[in-house]
């Protein structure tokens, strides 16, 4: 797999604030890469540097192995923070400007407007659009040049649940077409639902980078209950358990990797214990994310 | 180059204020010679007091005087075009579209070029309009039309172009520095009186530097012409040193715009 984006030791200083600190990352072709971090963690600043609208303090980055420049940006479809268009122009006119800048064919305009379901409203002025429509128009605009990479910064921010679902559906659909997507978000479930890879930023520092599957697969913990009192001793000698916590009659057993509730059940059964309650608690990304943030506070 | 101009025109031609200001500007250009003549005719009707003197014979709008006279007067209208420029650029900041243009694949230099091409087009358009208006007015009002006189002083039309273009680039620079349209228009309007106030307080031995101040230099391109009608000496040519100073400022302004955009986060 080839590298679409490589970041080396990127730093951005705003006076005394360090918005991005020695960030190094790599995004491969076809990844849906989430940049996850609480508000103010440096996501937008990082993307702004990658798109040449913010001057970096130090470090370097390259797109498709090339140094940054306008030629590279024409192959990227990107939105930072909020949809930005000329409010007094219609969707079509706005996209004509984008197409002219990117050197994209005008014929793409109707096509992308249909894709985001704005075709019927294409002659209405941008300022008359709802927030959801504005977000969809920016996705249309990002798709206009049939980009190799799409950059989306908080694309569901401020939307109602239906709007959020629509945008996520759209992103998944685009990802399925094989495009590389970089998605910045402070929402965990968004990253979990949409991304294949992600990194975690906090106060400009990289805390974690890896694939979503790896994390999801991760370790499982299982809640068990049995009427047989010996269960405690039996569990304590189980070599696949790393941690056992008793909570009001239930045992929460943390298993080693690649061991599942069924394995635990089979083990207990072989020791003559039948369970009356068995529940898998996959450790959610959210929990791990919070743990990561907490760890970094202690560090 | 044409592509960059096309992009900027697409932004402007659908913007109402652009047309309002341009039309107002055009109407004023057109109506000034007409009203001057109407005024002289009115004087003539009241002619009794003039002891047989025909005010229509004052050669204000006759070739070759007309070129310096109308270009001098018309430079006072350039504020309309400067406001078009200020709105066009401050909108890019307030809508943040300058940021999106660059994200989409313009370079900062492309952005500057696209605005400069529009400024060039506005100055050329206005110059052409003034040229045609001057020509028509001169043909209509010059009593004994002599083709040889027609284009004497035509250099003032060129000076008018340079005056307009430089002034609008100055407005571009102010907008890039100040970003908000109302504030920029306010400062631009205040700037000329401030410059003249400073020059009035210069110590005797430094007075000569005043003519190197940017707006002094621009205004020196076309000197006040009407004093000759009360028999005072005037400068009835475009001084090359004024052109040189103005071109120098033009380059400085463009460099400053580029420097400011290059070093700032958008
Ligand atoms: N123009 C700026 N001037 C000063 N500080 C800024 C500026 N832009 C962002 N910051 C600071 O940089 C940090 C990162 O901001 P940002 O990249 O917007 O975070 P995120 O997108 O993750 O919410 C924040 O502390 C923010 O206050
Ligand atoms: Mg942000």
Automatic annotation (TrEMBL), chain A:
The keyword Membrane does not apply. InterPro entries: AAA+_ATPase, ABC_transporter-like_ATP-bd, ABC_transporter-like_CS, P-loop_NTPase. Gene3D superfamilies: P-loop containing nucleotide triphosphate hydrolases. GO terms for molecular function: ATP binding; ATP hydrolysis activity. Belongs to the ABC transporter superfamily. Residues 5-228 form the ABC transporter domain. It comes from Fulvivirga marina. This is ABC transporter ATP-binding protein. It holds the Pfam family ABC_tran. Keywords: ATP-binding, Nucleotide-binding, Transport.
From TrEMBL, chain B:
Keywords: Membrane, Transmembrane, Transmembrane helix. Coiled coil: none annotated. It comes from the Bacteria. The chain crosses the membrane at residues 12-34, 72-95, 116-137, 157-178, 185-202, 237-257. It holds the Pfam family ABC2_membrane_4. The keyword Cytoplasm does not apply. This is ABC transporter permease. It comes from Fulvivirga marina.
């Amino acid at each position: 797999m080839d590298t679409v984006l490589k970041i080396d030791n990127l730093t951005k200083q705003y006076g005394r604030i360090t918005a991005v600190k020695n960030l190094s990352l790599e995004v491969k072709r076809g990844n849906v890469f989430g940049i996850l971090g609480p508000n103010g963690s440096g996501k937008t600043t990082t993307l702004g540097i990658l798109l040449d609208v913010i001057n970096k303090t130090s470090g370097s980055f390259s797109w498709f192995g090339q140094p940054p420049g306008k030629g590279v940006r024409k192959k990227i479809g990107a939105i930072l923070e909020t949809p930005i268009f000329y409010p007094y122009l219609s969707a079509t006119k706005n996209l004509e400007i984008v197409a002219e800048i990117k050197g994209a064919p005008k014929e793409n305009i109707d096509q992308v407007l249909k894709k985001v379901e704005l075709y019927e409203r294409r002659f209405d002025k941008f300022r008359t659009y709802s927030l959801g429509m504005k977000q969809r128009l920016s996705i249309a605009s990002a798709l206009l040049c049939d980009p190799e990479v799409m950059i989306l910064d908080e694309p569901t921010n401020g939307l109602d649940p239906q709007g959020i679902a629509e945008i996520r559906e759209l992103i998944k659909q685009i990802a399925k077409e094989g495009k590389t997507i970089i998605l910045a978000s402070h929402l965990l479930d968004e990253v979990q639902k949409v991304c294949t890879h992600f990194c975690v930023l906090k106060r400009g520092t990289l805390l974690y980078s890896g694939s979503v599957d790896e994390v999801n697969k991760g370790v499982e913990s299982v809640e068990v209950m049995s009427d047989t009192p010996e269960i405690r001793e039996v569990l304590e000698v189980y070599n696949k358990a790393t941690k056992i916590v008793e909570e009001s009659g239930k045992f929460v057993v943390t298993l080693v990797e690649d061991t599942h509730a069924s394995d635990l059940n089979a083990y207990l059964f072989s020791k003559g214990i039948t369970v009356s309650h068995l529940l898998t608690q996959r450790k959610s990304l959210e929990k791990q994310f919070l743990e990561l943030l907490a760890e970094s506070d202690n560090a | 180059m044409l592509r960059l101009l096309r992009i900027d025109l697409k932004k402007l031609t659908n913007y109402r204020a652009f047309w309002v200001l341009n039309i107002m500007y055009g109407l004023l250009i057109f109506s000034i010679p007409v009203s001057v003549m109407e005024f002289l005719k009115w004087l003539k009707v009241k002619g009794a007091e003039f002891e047989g003197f025909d005010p229509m014979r004052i050669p204000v709008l006759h070739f070759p005087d007309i070129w310096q006279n109308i270009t001098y007067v018309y430079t006072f209208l350039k504020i309309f075009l400067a406001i078009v420029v200020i709105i066009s650029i401050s909108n890019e900041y307030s809508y943040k579209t300058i940021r999106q243009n660059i994200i989409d694949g313009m370079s900062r230099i492309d952005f500057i070029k696209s605005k400069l091409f529009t400024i060039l087009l506005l100055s050329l358009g206005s110059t052409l309009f003034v040229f045609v208006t001057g020509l028509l007015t001169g043909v209509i009002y010059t009593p004994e039309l002599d083709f040889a006189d027609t284009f004497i002083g035509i250099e003032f039309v060129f000076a008018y172009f340079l005056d307009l273009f430089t002034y609008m680039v100055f407005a571009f620079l102010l907008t890039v520095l100040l970003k908000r349209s109302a504030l920029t228009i306010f400062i631009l309007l205040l700037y000329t009186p401030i410059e003249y106030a400073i020059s009035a307080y210069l110590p005797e031995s430094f007075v000569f530097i005043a003519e190197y101040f940017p707006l002094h230099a621009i205004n020196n391109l076309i000197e006040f012409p009407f004093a000759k009608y009360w028999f005072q000496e005037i400068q009835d040519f475009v001084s090359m040193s004024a052109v040189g100073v103005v071109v120098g400022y033009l380059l400085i302004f463009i460099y400053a715009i580029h420097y400011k955009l290059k070093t700032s986060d958008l």
